[in-house]
Amino acid sequence: MMQSADLPDTLAVFPLPGALLLPRSRLPLHVFEPRYLQMLDDALRTPQRLIGMVQPNPCRQDGSKLHQIGCAGRVTQFSETEDGRYMITLTGVSRFRIKSEVDGFAPYRRCTVCWKSFDHDLAAACAPDPRFDRDAFLRLLQRFFEARDMCTDWDSLTQADDELLVNSLSMLLDFTPEDKQALLEAPCLKTRRETLVTLIEFALCGNSGKDPLQ
Fold it and tell me: Any idea which of 56-70, 114-128, 154-168 has the lowest mean pLDDT?
């Protein structure tokens, strides 16, 4: 596990709408734009091999057009295709808060960041969610998948631990970038699980044509 002393003050950031990375979770990415190929090459030359995933925020008035909170991932797998593209896997290390953007000659964006509010992200596991009713959650999830005509490996879902289950669904389900940001900023597994349930319930109400408030 990475220690807080290993985390850099400056981080390359990859603004990608809808791509959510969470601590201790894995995000596969296909990198092909020249500026992000350069970002990856530069990251691989550093001891930490970190890249910051951030949701764009077009409503920001400060010109950054980025959400303030993102999540840094360590490049843990990568392979190069014959035409020079990369298939990589980022493993979530810690969330961060953007302080300012760094001017420079790099073709990609770099920011000074603060990690202090997210020390617990570096733990080997998150705090448990003792009130998590897995059976009720899986029934709700089954309704959601049936409404969307989606298939899944139910054996894997039922065997996954609580954090892996909640985080994987938060990352994989097709929510809006703002919804993904809310899941990222959830302070603990319990809050993320509650946010995820709310999003699924609203999606089901939308599919049924019913008022979500009923």
Answer: 56-70
Give the single-character DSSP code of 66: B
Tell me what pLDDT residue 25 has.
96
Name the residue among 140, 130, 136 with its Cα closest to residue 162.
130
Instruction: Return d(Cα 73, Cα 50) in angstroms, integer.
Output: 5
- What's the pLDDT tens digit per position in 98-115? 999 998 889 999 999 999
List Cβ neighbours of 113 (8 Å cut-off, separation of 6 or more).
8, 9, 10, 11, 52, 72, 96, 97, 98, 99
pTM of the model: 0.90
Q: Which residues contact 26 (CB under 8 A, 6 or more apart)?
A: 76, 89, 90, 91, 92
CA distance 56 to 72: 15
DSSP notation for 121-134: GGSSSPPP-TT--H
| Bridge partners, residue 114, by sequence | 97
